[in-house]
Specification:
By secondary structure, the protein is mostly beta strands. It has one helix spanning 40-52; strands at residues 5-11, 14-20, 28-33, 69-71, 84-87, 98-103, 109-113. It is globular.
Amino acid sequence: MEKIHLLITRRGPVWRVRILLPGEPRPRWRAYRAEDYPTPGAVARRCAEGLTRRGEDEGHGDHDADGNWIGRSCYDSPDIDGLVVFEGRGGEGQIVPVRITAVSDDGNLIGLEE
């Protein structure tokens, strides 16, 4: 059995999870809405479900239940700064240009993919 390390932090309405897997040089990042997963335990169980199906369509990624992508700018630290929530094609792990259209009450940026 592999040991997997999770760092779970909550930033406003979103849980951010850093996943360290043996043999992988870079961590994976996932985001979950706190509304859907209210406790760190629920987030950990959701991550475990996705990891047991590695190689399949994990059914979760860096987007919210409304289909908006969740990311960060190249200047943001995942544990300190807010998130960028945007509509568009996006893509997990891709860098996409986003036009910021608003700022949410909790400091996250909201935008549209250009």
